[in-house]
Design brief:
Elements (H helix, E strand, L loop, with lengths): L1 E4 L4 E4 L4 H6 L5 H20 L4 H13 L6 H13 L7 H7 L6 H14 L2 H13 L6 H14 L2 H14 L6 H13 L3 H10 L5 H14 L2 H10 L5 H13 L3 H13 L6 H14 L2 H13 L8 H13 L3 H10 L5 H13 L3 H11 L8 H14 L2 H15 L5 H13 L3 H9 L7 H14 L2 H14 L4 H13 L3 H14 L7 E5 L5 E5 L8 H17 L15 H9 L2 H12 L5 E5 L5 H14 L3 E4 L4 E5 L2 E2 L6
Parallel strand pairs: 5-6
Antiparallel strand pairs: 1-2, 3-4, 3-5, 6-7, 7-8
Helix pairs in contact: 2-4, 3-4, 4-6, 6-7, 6-8, 7-8, 8-9, 8-10, 10-11, 10-12, 11-12, 12-13, 12-14, 13-14, 14-15, 14-16, 15-16, 16-17, 16-18, 17-18, 18-19, 18-20, 19-20, 20-21, 20-22, 21-22, 22-23, 22-24, 23-24, 24-25, 24-26, 25-26, 26-27, 26-28, 27-28, 28-29, 30-32, 30-33
Length: 647
């Protein structure tokens, strides 16, 4: 044996070369072939371990010395190694290829693949054409390399032409690997129907074929098609189950996500951190404490507890905060052995949404003293905390520090936080000027923050400026029309209210009804719609609500009729207020969960009248009430709210 040294490694090659084998007196062909095969395998193994181009070049020199400069098997591995080392295809790899008199399909494919990965893409297509002109037939890896390149370039036109080649050449209709890569190409290029057609025509399918389409349907919002495919999947592995759990969660179907996860558990399928993050997201959307604790137990049992797994830990912090238990979120944070920017940001955002501005700012100050640097989400959290607490000057200070001290350029969302901060504090003109000075075009959240502030402070003039931009950016978002209509109604501008409602009718927009969820016994979630009296306990709920309101009126409560943006009688306004979904959920909670904290989730902003009722109910019943609306959390205790009536 001879030793072959480089700066970074030590290669050992067999001493006998092919040339030496040929000059010996007589060696049977089978023995010579066996020696040659051993040498080739050894060279391929050494190439696999090369970590630098100099190593690959030295192995190439040995290949030439051993008379293997025409061996497509070894040279294919050399080209793949050079591709892995990011050596430009147009230089050294192309020269290696050109020295081979009769390249086989695998050597052609290695060079095609190199150009497909590095670019230019058209060079890989031209190479494919050259290969065909020279009478060399492609192999499955040739097409998969081209399909992957088309996916990366999002070039569906080229992809369809390559697809046509698989049909013209023939023999690839039953190739599972080609079929799966073809589905992936169409899906990534946004041609889901074409991907489905390929799937339907495949003779053989594996779990990858099914899962690719399930994920694609879920991402496109067609969760029904994803579910139908999943039900037809013969063998469901962890990846397929995870695709459905995360698909439901991403499409705002948290109950279905939890049901799928329960079925996954019952089937004995192993859980990984991706599955857990998906189901944790579903729990966060639902806001149910029972499911939150159950999912955490599953994570612990799977060896993916928050103490040792920073991904799961960060997700659990977000979940507990959104389930109304910021205390449990902080307990998870404290026990985590490793904390990264996502852990800190989740906890800071959690404090912010619960109105705990001091805790959010204290944690931020502690974070910047560590090696963990804040990111854009961290600043969204601290700016939101300042906004909810009315800390205008502190928020302006943090906003100024973002770029200067931490290298985080303010984005649309940060400007939206600042507009919200200034607007809530009544500084509407300053907020409008900030929008005008933005270095980018304001998106809907920025104008939406300004419009919401105009509702708080009753400024119909600036409200119209904000709404007019929103009507262009989000023409079908009915919430913007309703908010402007309510601002006009509060100002007694009924002619303008009529104009907005006429515009809504012309666009065919319909108001989404207020909807609230409350967690009942055994963690069962009960849903209430505004004005809906279809619940089995409707009679008891109505009576409990009337008794509660009678008690509140005795203490001086008066319905806030201004919350009803309709030009109707006061009695009708009182009737509508009484049927708000959060009031129905509250009455049900008082009936069914004696002594426990009542947790309510609402899809819209809680109105001022319901807010007043929640404050009073917490006082006369002695119960804690937690309401999560689409803005923040409200913790009602002993007649007061954590938001300080600033929301």
């Amino acid at each position: 044996m001879v030793k072959f040294c480089t700066k970074t490694s030590l290669f050992i090659f067999p001493k006998t070369s092919c040339h030496q084998l040929q000059t010996q007196s007589f060696i049977p062909f089978s023995v010579r072939q066996e020696h040659k095969n051993i040498l080739e395998s050894r060279l391929v193994s050494i190439l696999h371990g090369c970590a630098h181009i100099n190593q690959a070049k030295q192995v190439h020199a040995h290949i030439v010395r051993k008379g293997l400069d025409q061996c497509c098997y070894v040279l294919t591995k050399l080209l793949r190694t050079l591709t892995k080392l990011d050596v430009p295809m147009g230089s050294y790899p192309r020269l290696v290829f050109q020295q081979v008199e009769y390249p086989n399909p695998f050597l052609w494919t290695a060079l095609i693949r190199g150009y497909a990965l590095q670019g230019p893409l058209m060079e890989s297509v031209l190479l494919y054409n050259s290969m065909r002109r020279r009478g060399t037939g492609p192999v499955s890896f040739t097409f998969t390399a081209l399909f992957k390149a088309c996916s990366a370039a999002l070039d569906v036109n080229l992809g369809t032409q390559v697809h046509a080649q698989t049909i013209l050449v023939g023999g690839f209709g039953s190739d599972l690997y080609v079929g799966n890569t073809l589905i992936d190409m169409y899906v990534k290029c946004g041609c889901l129907d074409c991907g489905r057609r390929v799937f339907d025509e495949m003779l053989d399918r594996d779990v990858i074929s099914w899962t690719s389409l399930i994920v694609a349907y879920a991402k496109s919002g067609n969760i029904e098609a994803a579910s139908e495919l999943f039900d037809g999947l013969p063998t469901k592995d962890m990846v397929a189950w995870t695709a459905m759990v995360t698909g439901y969660a991403q499409n705002a179907k948290p109950r279905e996500a939890l049901e799928a996860f329960e079925r996954m558990q019952a089937a004995g399928v192993k859980t990984d951190e991706v599955t857990l993050v998906g189901v944790i997201s579903a729990c966060a959307q639902l806001g149910a404490a029972k499911y939150a604790n159950w999912v955490r137990d599953v994570a612990e049992q799977s060896g993916l507890g928050p103490t040792s797994n920073v991904v799961v830990g960060s997700a659990l912090i977000d979940m507990y905060a959104k389930c109304g238990s910021v205390e449990d979120a902080y307990k998870v944070f404290e026990k985590m052995e490793e904390k990264n920017v996502y852990s800190y940001s989740s906890m800071i955002v959690g404090f912010a949404m619960h109105g705990l501005a001091d805790a959010a700012l204290e944690l931020f100050n502690g974070m910047v003293k560590t090696e963990t640097k804040p990111n854009r989400v961290t600043f969204i959290g601290v700016l939101t905390a300042c906004s909810h607490a009315g800390l205008v000057e502190k928020g302006k200070q943090l906003f100024a520090m973002m770029q200067e001290c931490y290298g985080v350029a303010p984005g649309d969302d940060h400007y939206a936080c600042m507009v919200d901060l200034l607007g809530r504090a009544g500084r509407l003109e300053e907020a409008l000027n900030l929008v005008k000075l933005m270095p980018m075009n304001p998106h809907g959240a920025v104008w939406g923050a300004l419009l919401g502030s105009c509702r708080i402070h009753g400024n119909p003039d600036i409200a119209w400026i904000a709404a007019s931009h929103l009507f262009e950016l989000e023409p079908n978002n009915i919430g913007n029309y309703i908010l402007l209509s309510n601002i006009y109604a509060s100002a007694g501008m009924w002619d303008d209210v009529s104009k907005i409602r006429k515009l809504m009718r012309a666009k065919g927009l319909k108001k989404n009804p207020g909807c609230s969820w409350v967690e009942g016994k055994k963690g069962i979630i009960h849903e209430f719609l505004a004005g809906d009296m279809s619940h089995p306990k409707t009679r008891e709920i109505k009576q409990a609500l009337e008794d509660l309101l009678d008690g509140l009126e005795y203490l001086g409560y008066q319905p806030k009729l201004s919350c009803v943006a309709y030009d109707i009688s006061d009695e009708e306004k009182k009737r509508l207020l009484m049927s708000h979904s959060e009031k129905l959920a509250l009455a049900f909670g008082l009936l069914t969960s004696a002594g426990c904290t009542i947790r309510i989730v609402k899809n819209l902003r809680i109105c001022e009248d319901c807010h007043s009722v929640m404050c009073g109910a917490s006082q006369i019943t002695g119960r804690e009430i937690v309401v999560r609306d689409n803005m923040r959390f409200h913790h009602f205790r002993n007649g007061t709210c954590s938001c300080g009536n600033f929301w």
